[in-house]
Amino acid sequence: MAVVLALVVGGDLWTRFVPVDLLTPPALREHPLAGYEEAARPLGAPAPPTMSSGSYTFNYAGVGDRPFVAFSPCRPVHYVVNNRHQPPGGGQLVSDAVSRISKATGLRFVADGTTSERASADREPYQPERYGDRWAPVLIDWVTTAEEPVFALAEAHGGTTRLGDARALPVSREGSADVLVTGQVRLNATALGARLRDPGGAAAVRATIQHELGHIVGLGHTSDASQLMAATSTGQTEFGAGDLVGLAALGTGPCAPRI
Predict the structure, then answer these.
(1) Which GO terms describe its molecular function (predicted)?
(2) Which of 11, 149, 178, 236 has a CA 20 to 30 Å removed from the CA of 66?
């Protein structure tokens, strides 16, 4: 939508169409101005997979000849960390996991530091009062079992410990295709902190973070137990062939200047 501004100069009438968003303060909008940090072409390219594999799924179905929904590769993916319960060494493991996701997808990630924001079911994707006139960054939140009982529930009943969860958010505007713009990851700080003290624990915790970030960029679970994106871990610490094929595809989404 646009409004018409008219100006009389020297007896001549000049008109200009101006998008309403430009005239509306961020606090009164439900979304940022379109195209923030959007470049004309992708900022990077995914690492070419060395093996072919069909052992991957996508979280969101696309339309037409693109079977997935992804972040725009033409703008950086910002992220913040709530580290109030982050175990020692956890910050480096987050950075290492992000680096692996970035290499596999070609997406450029930018660390925006720490935040006091906590993950929530009703998290707003646009928070100009906290993050400025842009989509809120991906939130990575270290959560204890005291704060989130579901993380302790399975273990208490002899089941599999839930080490984390993640949810990405697709949006569309004015008829555009869906694009991922943000998301949130919750990490079980209690269980992962204990795991870090075990031999090989750092690699296992980093793999958990990679798994959840895989969901953030658009990968779903696979039934192939040899992949890191399997629903239940069997000791994998690196992305498998199927994971890498899926991640490479997710790095080839369209630019999104209208989002």
Answers:
(1) metallopeptidase activity
(2) 236
- Please tell me the distance from the alpha carbon of residue 239 to that of residue 155, in angstroms, as a whole number: 26
CATH class of 47-249: alpha beta
For the segment 136-157, the average pLDDT, to the nearest whole number, is 85
Nearest to residue 90, comparing CAs of 40, 16, 98?
98
Burial per residue of 61-97, b for 16 or more beta-carbon CB atoms within 10 angstroms, e otherwise: ebeeeeebbbbbbbbbbbbbbbbebbbeebeebbebb
**Residues 32-56, mean pLDDT to the nearest whole number:** 97
Question: What residue spans define the domains of the chain?
Answer: 47-249
pLDDT, tens digit (0-9, with 9 covering 90-100), for 8-22:
545 554 544 445 455
Contact partners, residue 25, CB within 8 Å, separation at least 6: none
Find the helix or strand (DSSP H, E) in which 96 lies.
helix 90-105
